[in-house]
Amino acid sequence: MVTSMHIDPNKMVTINIDGIPVTVPSGTTIMEAARKVGIKIPSLCHHPDLGVRAFCRVCLVEDSHSRRLKTACNNLVDEAGDITTNSPKVRKARQTVLELLLANHPQDCLHCERNGKCELQTLAAEYNIRGNIFDPVWKPVPKELSNPALVRDMTKCVRCGRCVEACQAIQTTNAIGYSGRSTDFKITTAFEKPLSESPCVYCGQCVAVCPVGALYEKDDTKRVWDAIDNKDKFVVVQTAPAVRVAIGEEFGMERGAIATGKMVAALRRLGFDKVFDTDFSADLTIMEEGYELLDRMKNGGTLPMITSCSPGWINFVEKTYPDLLPHVSSCKSPQQMFGAIAKTYYADKMGIPRDKMFVVSIMPCIAKKYECQRPEMNSSGYQDVDVVLTTRELAKMIRMAGLDFNFLPEEEFDHPLGLGSGAGAIFGTSGGVMEAAIRTVYEVVTGKEPQSLDFTACRGHEGIKEATLDLDGTPVKVAITNGLKNARVLMDKIRAGEADYQFIEVMCCPGGCVGGGGQPFRTTAAIREHRMDGLYKVDKNMNLRQSHKNPDIQTLYSEFLKEPNSHLAHELLHTHYEDRSDK
Predict the structure, then answer these.
(1) pLDDT of residue 2
(2) What's the whole-model pTM score?
(3) Cβ distance 204 to 365 under 8 Å?
(4) Residue 361 pLDDT greater than 60, yes or no
(5) Would you call 533 helix, strand, or coil by DSSP?
(6) Residue 129, exposed/middle/buried by CB under 10 A (0-12, 13-18, 19+)?
(7) Are 2 and 54 in contact (CB under 8 A)?
(8) 190: domain range?
(9) Residues labelled catalytic
């Protein structure tokens, strides 16, 4: 398998593709060169964020030098002659490859989770495949339903290898891999055990890159519809920061478009009793986490302190680095803090019996489905968050309700759990939690407003970012990482005693929540960048940009919690994690 191409920008190569001359740097693949002149070469196994595998053979093109067909995703322009991408020979070869794939694939598109969004289905339509000369050879495999987050339907697997690449190279969890050869070749877990008995952290990056319906999140939309239709329930919903800059893509809006108002309007029309904002509890998280950090720094607590708001990351550290759990903040994630507050403070304030409250989360993350079911997430006396839906599941409900998303009005969140700051909004991107924390911690420590609220050293797409902050003469060294491969680097430094940081932000998914496993399909690095820009735009346009200045957060403390890290705050908003390396 080719994992990378070595492009030499100092050496240029010119070839003809379908008679069109194109000049590109040496080391460019034929597929990339064709894209430069507006020619799309089809593929199932290729993904711009992953290494090159050339497994599917759909990207065949004709080369005048070798006078044979070759794959465009892994062959370089340096070794190619004139390339033809649209000859009878090429079209026939691609059709045959697709027909062979379809012969080994169940034809139950109407019942498939990816119907209408399946890359194999799209290619079959583009190549006008209406029948198949090959007899069906696929064999049914039982769906794997052993965990609360993911479904594996390997009957539909096309063995493209994308999921393995995401799991092993991007996340380094190695929950899945290859097994067997020839017709026995398949993708599975070690010893074919269930995902619940593997190192899987339920991040959903495998789902995000799967081109077909072999991997998907467990669908909880029916549970939400049932709750909405139950007149005995008071159903509230919270929406994560990263959802508002992704949900619009499901309805044809520009990538990264800010769709907050339309999303709120849609949720009201779906029938939720109140529509709240996870930005509120992100602000609450900053208060609890910021004061926890200051307490550790002042009283000799375990440093560096590491953020705890990403459930995939928590699963990873519990399974892979349990000896470093003392470094992890005891704070719950914003999702879980919201649930605890909704079923205590809000329920009591509004006179709603706690057992009648039903809390739904709209999240960009599949691991959140697992997080809400953890046994310790019931500090309200009930399961704090009842159901988690992904961005994709929300889009499914909007379509089912017949709502024209683009024509919905702009509406506001409800109060008091619907007011969030710009600091809460940027939680959805890598570096956002750190920047939000600095905006508050700086003022708490120095008693002065920061000269600027834009701590740009925290921003960007790099796998690991470092910065040293001056808190009025006290240097604080921080690190920010996204993607578990990069998190592993920092964890190994801590284990080796080489990490001189005081605070580390870890986001499980590449780019943070904007690249979560529950976001719209076909997410790429470029799309994550658009969503990231959208969140910073949300922050920039807000008057309220610091968590500790959120008046509804101030009221929550004065009326209920009293102060950050109080006894009641610890009961409701903090938790513990455990060594699960043997599981």
Answers:
(1) 43
(2) 0.95
(3) yes
(4) yes
(5) helix
(6) middle
(7) yes
(8) 133-217
(9) 289, 292, 309, 329, 368, 371, 376, 513
